[in-house]
UniProtKB/TrEMBL annotation:
<dbReference type="InterPro" id="IPR023346">
    <property type="entry name" value="Lysozyme-like_dom_sf"/>
</dbReference>
<protein>
    <submittedName>
        <fullName>Membrane-bound lytic murein transglycosylase F</fullName>
    </submittedName>
</protein>
<keyword id="KW-0732">Signal</keyword>
<dbReference type="Pfam" id="PF00497">
    <property type="entry name" value="SBP_bac_3"/>
</dbReference>
<keyword id="KW-0998">Cell outer membrane</keyword>
<dbReference type="GO" id="GO:0009279">
    <property type="term" value="C:cell outer membrane"/>
</dbReference>
<dbReference type="Pfam" id="PF01464">
    <property type="entry name" value="SLT"/>
</dbReference>
<dbReference type="InterPro" id="IPR001638">
    <property type="entry name" value="Solute-binding_3/MltF_N"/>
</dbReference>
<dbReference type="InterPro" id="IPR008258">
    <property type="entry name" value="Transglycosylase_SLT_dom_1"/>
</dbReference>
<feature type="domain" description="Solute-binding protein family 3/N-terminal">
    <location>
        <begin position="39"/>
        <end position="258"/>
    </location>
</feature>
<keyword id="KW-0472">Membrane</keyword>
Length: 449
């Protein structure tokens, strides 16, 4: 992903300044004459996150960053405390466009709406220690908190018109923090994006999603009289990233791992992080220093292969914590598969070899995900899947396309036409997605430690 210089300005948020100064009330320079792209958002927007140090993340941020890099402009973000203030500022042309806003239907005629790139499902989140609510009436009288000024607050305000007894607190906290409070039992419910709830469940096993309130479309919003040049550039940008698979790649990077693991998978993995991983961590870190691969990725792969069981064996002849064949171990310079340290090093060397064998034009992180698939089914199977991707006019260098092709290796029709023949390609996809999910949990767990 390209990077550009970013400036950060903010309106007063809850009585304090985060950084910068109050932005000018004057309209921004026309797009054709500006040296910066000015973008408005709100403090707790969906898919656009700002941490306490002013760092940005999220798919919406990545898209703006990519667009600014493409047109060669710096970015200046203006963060407003509430939706209505953001829309008022945009109407006054104080930014070139806005992101992360769920514009009410009655206001759409005042603006130009960009292409839809994501649908957000707004869902009630609850603590599994209590009963799951099945309708909005069951929320009356409960302690509900949502981020102030967010899409979720606006959604509840709409529902209150029909359900006057519905009440909640709008607080200056992100959905991520509120889901943590939900896990601890400090609140009864919150409203969040269904993906955020699924992601939170990887770290907080009591957080669950109940019924869905609404679905909103994520897209950039422009002032009504925006220059045609900017609108055309944006439309061309979204058309390109859709055709080249960049948009799908971004969506996969944020949502891909979070639908693979069951609650039971997560529960037992987190238990073994405390019971088994401490004794193995030094071996993973040593292998990481030798190969340059993140030790947490190696640990995630080892867990998927053996659940960190040093004595693991399979009927097919693979064994040890990384489940290596004797032939692979020999090629990696490992002569004792029962030695945990050497087994981990052998698996790390093999994964590095697979990554290096892939064509140079395969980018990261796709290169790593393809190497994981090859670790499971062999490098030749990845080559076969790449050939099928080309046949179906897909991009063989992107994991989001390759993972569609790997299951076809199971089918006799395709197996007869490819170089290396039949394979359980669906298992390679399952392994890769599971390792990615375990890897995310490990990154979060080790950061917290």
């Amino acid at each position: 992903m390209c990077t550009v210089k970013i400036r950060f300005a903010t309106i007063i948020l809850y009585g304090v300044f985060l950084s910068g100064c109050i932005p000018s009330d004057k309209p921004v320079s026309p797009f054709a004459m500006t040296n910066e792209l000015v973008v408005i958002t709100i403090a707790h927007a969906d898919n656009f996150h700002i941490d306490s140090e002013g760092n940005f993340s999220g798919i919406t941020y990545d898209l703006v960053n990519e667009f600014a890099a493409e047109i060669g402009l710096e970015i200046r973000f203006i963060v407003m405390p509430r939706l209505e203030l953001a829309l008022a500022a945009l109407k006054q042309h104080r930014a070139h466009f806005a992101i992360g806003l769920d514009i009410p239907d009655q206001y759409t005629y005042r603006f130009i709406l960009g292409p839809v790139y994501l649908h957000t499902h707004h869902q009630i989140a609850f603590n599994a220690g209590s009963s799951e609510p099945t309708d909005i009436q069951q929320l009356i009288g409960k302690l509900i908190e949502v981020p102030v000024g967010s899409t979720h607050e606006n959604l509840l305000q709409k529902m209150k018109v029909k359900i006057p007894g519905l009440a909640w607190s709008a607080v200056p906290q992100s959905s991520e923090l509120l889901l943590t409070k939900l896990e601890k039992g400090e609140i009864d419910y919150t409203v969040a994006d269904s993906l955020h709830i699924k992601k939170a469940n990887h770290f907080h096993h009591r957080v669950k999603g109940a019924f869905e309130l609404d679905v909103s479309a994520s897209r950039w919003i422009f002032p009504k009289y925006t220059e045609k040049l900017l609108i055309d550039k944006v439309n061309e940008f979204f058309e390109r990233i859709k055709q080249e698979g960049v948009l799908g790649q971004l969506l996969d990077s944020y949502s891909g791992p979070y639908y693979q693991l069951s609650p039971g998978d997560i529960y037992f993995f987190k238990k073994k992080i405390h019971s088994r991983l401490p004794a193995l961590k030094k071996y993973f870190m040593q292998a990481a220093r030798i190969t340059g691969i993140d030790w947490r990725l190696l640990a995630a792969l080892a867990y998927q292969e053996s659940h960190w069981n040093q004595r693991a064996k399979s009927p097919t002849g693979v064994s040890g914590i990384m489940m290596l064949t004797r032939e692979t171990a020999r090629r990696m310079g490992i002569d004792n598969l029962a030695d945990t340290r050497m087994n981990i090093l052998g698996g790390a060397r093999y994964l590095k070899l697979l990554k290096e064998k892939l064509p140079e034009n395969v980018p990261e992180p796709d290169r790593t995900w393809m190497a994981l698939a090859a670790y499971n089914q062999g490098y030749g199977r990845v080559i076969d899947a790449r050939a099928l991707a080309r046949r179906f006019n897909l991009n063989p260098d992107l994991w989001i396309d390759l993972k569609k092709m790997l299951p076809l290796l199971n089918k006799q029709h395709y197996a007869e036409e490819i170089k290396y023949g039949h394979a359980r390609g669906d298992e390679a996809v399952t392994l890769t997605n599971s390792v990615r999910a375990y890897y995310e949990i490990l990154k979060r767990a080790t950061t917290e430690d």
